[in-house]
Specification:
alpha/beta, Rossmann fold, 2 domains, 7-stranded mixed sheet, 6 helices, globular, binds S-adenosylmethionine
Length: 215
């Protein structure tokens, strides 16, 4: 059976965590996502694992262009330049799923993206983002940025004399973004916790949640 994954925010990244479906671990820094994926896919397939397809979504066109140019597995890995909160994105992803005879992705990775959604779209945007992801997912893996990263991002903007994030002062989900995200996943998305990993070297944890089984 074909397994599908989506990675939202595709900038280069090394992940040392294991997930249920994808095992990207023990990799050296400064590799980029496509090479990590290539190694991972080849390893998975050589062990007679199911077919795996992955789509990476990011709103940065340059990033997507680079990722496409260096894509080692265009038959399995696709990159799309989309704003995840846009209607186009939902349509595109549903079309992608239909082509593969699926209604949802087996797993959706959201590494280091929740803060940007939260800062740029506020509490409502964060809720909408997680709802949309969960609608499309059997399982979600989120790496929330801690509150100190919000403060650093705001400070960087102010130092660059670019003002501040207009919605920052209006946020109610403050101080402990991870707690708020877990609450949204349970309360609004009706997902259940599988596990929460220990902090990585940056003190970040992965929240792993899944859709409840329909009875
Ligand atoms: C901090 S980077 C993290 C990227 C990657 N997941 C990682 O862990 O290295 C955040 C990424 O999210 C992307 N991004 C922010 N808002 C987005 C949105 N609404 N839709 C799609 N991508 C978005 C940015 O362009 C950026 O590449």
């Amino acid at each position: 059976m074909r397994q599908l994954g989506i990675m939202i925010g595709t900038r280069l990244r090394v992940c040392k965590h294991r997930s249920h479906l994808f095992c990207l671990h023990n990799l050296e820094p400064d590799l980029d996502l496509t090479y990590i994926l290539q190694d991972f896919l080849e390893e998975a397939m050589s062990q007679d694992q199911p077919e795996i397809s992955l789509i990476g979504v990011d709103l940065d066109p340059i990033l997507i262009e680079k990722a496409r140019e260096r894509n080692p597995r265009p038959d399995r890995v696709t990159f799309e330049c989309l704003d995840f909160l846009s209607e186009d994105c939902g349509e595109m992803l549903r079309w992608y799923l239909t082509q593969l005879n699926k209604t949802r992705f087996d797993v959706v990775f959201c590494f280091s993206i929740t803060m940007w959604i939260h800062l740029n779209h506020g509490d409502d945007g964060l809720e909408e983002f997680l709802r949309k992801v969960c609608e499309l997912a059997e399982m979600i893996i989120v790496e929330p940025q801690p509150w100190r990263c919000y403060k650093n991002a705001s400070r960087r903007l102010r130092r660059a004399k670019l003002g501040d994030f207009p919605l920052l002062k209006e946020l109610k989900y403050t101080r402990n973004p991870m707690k708020h995200i877990e609450d949204i996943l349970r309360r609004l998305c009706d997902f259940q916790r599988v596990t929460v990993t220990a902090g990585n070297e940056w003190g970040r944890m992965l929240l792993i949640y899944e859709r409840k089984q329909e009875s």
